């Protein structure tokens, strides 16, 4: 067995720096001693003759032996050497050799960096009858909430159509061919891990995003979680190597977590998807489907970063304001928000603000039935109004009122980011409590409090502000 400290010397500097950030062992913590976090044992444990140097992993919530990290680091070094051989023009290695099948998935599972949620979905209550869904679909929804039998064609077609028109149009994570295959009745009868995972994630995301069908969140979320749990049964098969399939699967999970944050940490999932994009190098691809996939991931990453005021990882790609693709229009507006956040008020004088009025006309002329595209346009107008050197309270309040009106009159996707924007815009309009924008903002937060309980605190905060 390697002596304490010898193992670290075998690693390059970047890995040694990473290992230096490991938590202190439990023994050093208990004795209030400085732990040098060496492998396979710290010096204090080695001197005391303790065989197992154990630390607490905060992500997994369990205790792990420090010696277990040694084979992982050896594996990482081996993969690096194989990658360097490929970069130097050596013969391409077989994917099964580089990324063999394993009992534990590469990215997910009980021992992975992003563990599956063990929380069981709550039992659903009865559905409302005042929806435009047919009674047959209601019966299918009720029957599928418990045992998840094989879906009928009607239910599958409805959820697939909703995903294709409302979700895929804005976040084209899937290839068009894959989307068509997933909607095919014949394809559904052919067993396939990737197809089963994709179909269940499509249904999970569709159920979680249905906000305009007269259905209550407490009814749809448990059903969405059931589809999600079915998809997670296939997670090992679709994330067993660094590939486009793994990236698409991770992006679908990240998108779902924006609607149901309890089923996965969306910031970690989006960061993982961003890391896969860089490893696969698709940010430089000329393939149309892969470019749309990259745009989907970078748009989700930027939306979370801009909303929660966090940094981003993915490199920027050129926006194409002349494109009429929804994802291109979305990225163009988000790139403008990123630019405005980086610029100071003095710099704003030298940067001409692009005319968003033209984009407003384009969106209406194309009759894009994607409410969130119009909502992001209003968010961009608000961000630019706040960052403008010539900003006045009237300009900012007008932009905030327009954003509230868009959310109030159109069925936008109920992601966990929506309450933030509603609260921000309503706070700007709170200096006029009698205005329609302020009242509509409170009504919006009240409308979404069943899905997002934190909206109740936001309402109280606004009421305290206005006295």
UniProtKB/TrEMBL annotation:
It is found in: Nucleus. It comes from the Eukaryota. The keyword Transcription applies. PROSITE patterns: ZN2_CY6_FUNGAL_1 (PS00463), ZN2_CY6_FUNGAL_2 (PS50048). Residues 24-55 form the Zn(2)-C6 fungal-type domain. GO terms for biological process: DNA-templated transcription; positive regulation of transcription by RNA polymerase II. GO terms for molecular function: DNA-binding transcription factor activity, RNA polymerase II-specific; sequence-specific DNA binding; zinc ion binding. GO terms for cellular component: nucleus. SUPFAM superfamilies: Zn2/Cys6 DNA-binding domain. InterPro entries: XnlR_reg_dom, Yeast_MetPath_Reg, Zn2-C6_fun-type_DNA-bd_sf, Zn2Cys6_DnaBD. Keywords: DNA-binding, Metal-binding, Nucleus, Transcription, Transcription regulation, Zinc. Pfam families: Fungal_trans, Zn_clus. Transmembrane segments: none annotated. SMART domains: GAL4 (SM00066). Its main location: nucleus. This is Zn(2)-C6 fungal-type domain-containing protein.
């Amino acid at each position: 067995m390697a002596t304490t400290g010898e193992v670290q010397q075998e690693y390059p500097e970047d890995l040694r720096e990473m290992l230096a950030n490991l938590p202190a062992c439990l023994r050093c913590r208990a004795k209030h001693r400085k732990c040098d976090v060496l492998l396979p044992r710290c010096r204090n444990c080695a001197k005391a003759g303790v065989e197992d140097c154990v630390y607490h992993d905060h992500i997994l919530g369990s205790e792990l032996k420090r010696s277990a990290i040694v084979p992982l680091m050896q594996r990482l070094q081996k993969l690096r050497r194989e990658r360097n051989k490929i970069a130097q023009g050596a013969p391409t290695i077989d994917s099964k050799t580089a990324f063999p099948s394993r009992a534990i998935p590469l990215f997910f599972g009980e021992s992975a960096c992003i563990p599956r949620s063990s929380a069981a979905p709550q039992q659903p209550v009865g559905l409302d009858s005042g929806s435009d869904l047919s009674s047959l679909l209601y019966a299918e929804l009720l029957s599928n909430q418990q045992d998840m039998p094989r879906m009928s064609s009607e239910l599958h077609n409805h959820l697939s159509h909703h995903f294709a028109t409302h979700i895929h149009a804005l976040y084209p994570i899937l290839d068009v061919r894959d989307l068509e295959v997933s909607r095919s009745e014949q394809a559904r009868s052919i067993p396939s891990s990737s197809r089963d995972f994709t179909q269940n994630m499509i249904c999970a995301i569709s159920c979680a995003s249905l906000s305009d069908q007269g259905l209550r969140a407490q009814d749809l979320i448990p059903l969405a979680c059931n589809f999600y749990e079915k998809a997670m049964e296939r997670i090992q098969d679709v994330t067993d190597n660094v590939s486009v399939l793994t990236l698409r699967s991770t992006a679908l999970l990240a998108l779902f977590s924006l609607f149901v944050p309890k089923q996965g940490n969306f910031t970690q999932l989006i960061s993982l998807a961003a890391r896969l994009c860089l490893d696969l190098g698709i940010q430089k691809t000329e393939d149309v489907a892969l470019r749309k996939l990259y745009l989907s991931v970078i748009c989700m990453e930027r939306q979370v970063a801009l909303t929660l005021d966090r940094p981003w990882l993915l490199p920027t790609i050129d926006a194409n304001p002349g494109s009429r693709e929804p994802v291109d229009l979305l990225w163009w507006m988000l790139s403008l928000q990123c630019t405005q956040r980086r610029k100071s008020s003095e710099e704003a004088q030298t940067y001409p603000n692009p005319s968003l009025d033209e984009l407003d006309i384009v969106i209406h002329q194309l009759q894009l039935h994607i409410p969130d595209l119009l909502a992001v346009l209003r968010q961009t107008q608000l961000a630019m109004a706040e960052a403008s050197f010539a900003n006045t309270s009237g300009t900012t309040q007008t932009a905030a009122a327009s954003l509230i009106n868009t959310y109030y009159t159109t069925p936008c996707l109920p992601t966990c980011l929506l309450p933030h924007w509603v609260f921000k815009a309503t706070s700007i309009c709170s200096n006029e409590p009698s205005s329609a924008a302020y009242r509509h903002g409170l009504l919006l937060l009240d409308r979404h409090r069943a899905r997002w309980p934190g909206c109740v605190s936001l309402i109280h905060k606004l009421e305290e502000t206005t006295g």
